[in-house]
Design brief:
Blueprint lengths: L11 E2 L12 H5 L7 E2 L19 E6 L9 E5 L6 E2 L6 E5 L9 H4 E6 L4 E6 L3 E9 L4 E10 L5 E9 L7 E6 L2 E6 L2 E8 L6 E5 L2 E5 L3 E3 L4 E11 L5 H9 L3 H20 L9 H16 L1 E2 L9 E2 L10 E3 H11 L4 H12 L11 E3 L17 H12 L2 H21 L11 E2 L4 H8 L12 E5 L2 E4 L1 E2 L1 H20 L3 H21 L1 E2 L4 E2 L1 E3 L5 E2 L8 H4 L5 H11 L34 H13 L3 H14 L11 E4 L6 E5 L2 H11 L3
Parallel strand pairs: 2-3
Antiparallel strand pairs: 1-18, 3-4, 4-5, 6-11, 7-8, 8-9, 9-10, 10-18, 11-16, 11-17, 12-13, 13-14, 14-18, 15-16, 19-20, 21-22, 23-25, 24-25, 26-29, 27-28, 29-30, 31-32
Helix pairs in contact: 5-17, 6-7, 6-8, 6-17, 7-8, 8-9, 8-11, 9-11, 11-12, 15-16, 15-17
Length: 668
């Protein structure tokens, strides 16, 4: 009979084995091992390996590499701690001894395989007597279950003595304690609490300052018999109920959970694959969709403390990206709306939770604002209305529009109050603290060549502008007026819709004349008086195409530059700076040459909007096939790419890169 398990952070019990075959989930099987979770954490801040998570948990796991293999998964990697740290190499590690107190299996010599799926992690071991399978799947946003299935493959009865242990703890501020039959995990630097609870067993628990051991009852296995040990790990913030979580675990069986999760992930991926553009019909693109969805899954976090709604990190793997950024969030939301509309909505709410009374939205917000200060020095480019409208297109949720429309109006109008130095209807990037660096940050293109000679101007209290009017910013604002117009029409706000339409027409005329250079066939920033072009040919020029503000003739000229191998049609195409510019720095240049997927997407999607589908597909094909590892199993999606060689650059497991690849693959 199955024994029901209750929970804590780790609950343990024995149940009869029921095997689930991946053959029933062909999409999961095809996309398995899309990311490489193998590694050997050597210190708390180790960033050499990736970690698997699901359901928005603030902790994750991986595989130990073959040279350091144990009967457990690596981690957990705790994002409950500042910037994310490994608790230990393997905090829930199993030892099996025989009746003579000898090791019943040598894990290093017996490893058969390790496989990761969008649904779970799985590893298998085998020697002359035992076949062992370990699987890890997330039950909830707080809990993961780890099952070890042990099969006696001999003709004789085998007696085993299982012991779990967690040692080599990397974090000095972690405290282990015993509560009844539980091992409790607390931290002086986090409000989250963890437990190890062994249910339906009477473990003998020993705890030292840096380790625990839990000796379980012996297992007697008849020939060909299989028995299981299930351990649940939970890390939970105080805003959530531990008692409720225990009740959920108490009525959960591992096989039911695993099968349900497999079905959910299979259906999710199948639905995304069904949305592929016809040009991406091959299976390799379906597998890429699996990798992109998994990248976003691993970066998803539930609401916790200062983050009042769930959303996505830019990258959990990079220590300074454990928060939510404004324009990252807008991009994430558009992609995520294709498979999880509630997460997309909450990603938007997470930033608007911090909207100020004047409409301003901070650049980034964190879980613990006392440790990592939210950035109010600048905001980011206005893409929020685009994201809200895209979510509406998927959901047709009018109440969602009602919720956000007033906030979007306030945010949109803020730009014209605090970021239009000469009040000519064309805005500038800037800062709230009067610093030049924050003004550049506001563009999102921190060190772009177009800002090399910029200066800061004061507009008013906590309101400063760069001394140039930016074509991308005003294109974004043009697009926002059009999206706000659409929202007003849905909400039957006829007069407001007319107002947005009128403003859109006026702004379009200004953009088409002030920022356009017919001699070079490109859009540029200008000086603040609008009289002199800032002649740096960069990715900001893609935005008038994406926003559909450029004329058909202008786009025809721009396309020549975009398809020219000496300018923008590099090995990985559409870099942030023209390849023939003297300051072009393809590697290590950040926004001075490398390819950023959001900007490439804006260029490609813009060409599609003007009917240049063949050219858009050509550039997209190169973007997918020539960027290092994008189509390869086990290689992470990177923050940006070297346009000449294709080398992946900067952060690993980057959400907005995955988001924009997904947008490129799917029908709009």
């Amino acid at each position: 009979m199955r024994k029901k398990h209750i929970l804590s952070i780790l609950s343990l019990f024995f149940i009869i084995q029921y095997g689930w075959s991946q053959k029933g989930f062909p999409v999961l099987e095809s996309s398995k091992n899309s990311l490489n979770y193998k590694g050997n954490p050597k210190k708390a801040a180790d960033r050499e390996s990736l970690a698997f998570s699901d359901k928005g948990t603030w902790f994750a796991f991986g595989f130990l590499d073959a040279s350091n293999i144990q009967a457990g998964f690596s981690g957990p990697f705790l994002m409950t701690e500042q910037n994310g740290v490994w608790l230990s190499p393997s905090f829930v590690s199993l030892q099996l001894n025989d009746e003579n107190k000898r090791e019943a299996i040598n894990w290093k010599n017996s490893l058969v395989n390790q496989n990761s799926y969008n649904s779970h992690l799985e590893q298998q071991f085998k020697n002359e007597k035992l076949a062992i399978k370990q699987q890890l799947v997330f039950l909830s946003s707080h809990t993961a279950l780890q099952r070890t299935s042990i099969t006696n493959t001999t003709a004789k009865t085998i007696t085993l003595y299982p012991t779990y242990s967690g040692s080599s703890i990397f974090i000095e501020n972690i405290q282990l304690s015993k509560e009844d039959k539980d091992v409790k995990v607390t931290s002086s630097k986090s409000t989250a609490t963890g437990y190890i609870q062994f249910l339906n067993a009477n473990p003998t628990i020993e705890i030292t300052k840096e380790a625990y051991t839990a000796q379980l009852e012996k297992l007697i296995l008849q020939p060909n018999e299989t028995k299981e040990i299930v351990v649940s790990q939970t890390f939970i913030f105080p805003q959530y109920s531990w008692e409720k979580e225990k009740a959920t675990i108490a009525k959960t069986t591992f096989n039911t959970l695993l099968n349900r999760t497999q079905k959910e992930k299979e259906n999710q991926l199948a639905q995304l694959i069904a949305k592929k553009k016809a040009v991406y019909k091959e299976a390799v693109y379906s597998d890429l969709i699996g990798k992109l969805a998994l990248t976003l899954q691993n970066n998803t976090r539930i609401a916790a403390e200062g983050l009042k709604h769930g959303g996505l990190f830019p990258s959990y793997n990079y220590e300074w990206f454990h928060g939510f950024w404004a324009w990252d969030s807008w991009k994430h939301a558009v992609a995520v709306a294709n498979y999880d509309s509630e997460l997309a909505k909450n990603q938007m709410r997470a930033l608007f939770d911090y909207q100020e009374s004047n409409g301003f939205i901070p650049d980034c917000v964190y879980r613990n604002n006392q440790i990592e200060e939210n950035n109010y020095r600048n905001t980011k480019a206005p893409l929020a209305a685009w994201a809200i409208w895209k979510i509406y297109e998927k959901t047709k949720d009018v109440n969602f529009l009602k919720e956000f429309y007033p906030k979007l109006k306030l945010y949109h109008n803020w730009w014209y109050i605090d970021r239009d130095h000469d009040q000519d209807g064309l805005c500038e990037f800037g800062s709230t603290d009067g610093t030049l660096i924050a003004g550049k940050w506001e563009s999102g293109m921190d060190n772009a060549v177009r800002f090399d000679d910029s200066k800061i101007l004061k507009n008013g209290e906590k309101a400063y502008s760069l001394d140039q009017e930016s074509v991308d910013l005003n294109s974004f604002l043009y697009a926002e007026k059009n999206y706000l117009n659409k929202m007003a029409q849905v909400l039957k706000l006829t007069e407001e819709a007319k107002k947005w339409q009128k403003e859109s027409v006026a702004l379009k005329a200004k953009i088409q004349t002030q920022f356009w250079d017919p001699a070079t066939g490109w859009y540029y920033d200008t000086t603040i008086d609008g009289k002199t072009l800032v002649k740096v040919m960069g990715c900001e020029g893609y935005l008038p195409i994406w926003a559909e503000v450029a004329t058909q003739e202008q786009v025809k000229s721009m396309k020549v530059n975009m398809l020219n191998p000496a300018i923008f049609n590099t090995f990985v195409p559409l870099p942030t700076l023209a390849a023939n510019h003297p300051k072009f720095k393809p590697e290590g240049g950040y926004w001075r040459g490398p390819v950023w997927l959001d900007q490439s997407y804006f260029g490609i999607n813009g060409l599609e909007k003007y009917g240049y589908n063949t050219d858009a597909n050509l550039l997209a094909h190169k973007l997918i096939h020539n960027a290092e590892g994008v189509l390869d199993k086990g290689t992470s999606i990177r923050e940006n790419y070297q346009p000449i060689t294709g080398k992946g650059l900067e952060a690993y497991n980057f959400s907005w890169s995955a988001s924009h690849y997904l947008m490129i693959l799917l029908k709009n």
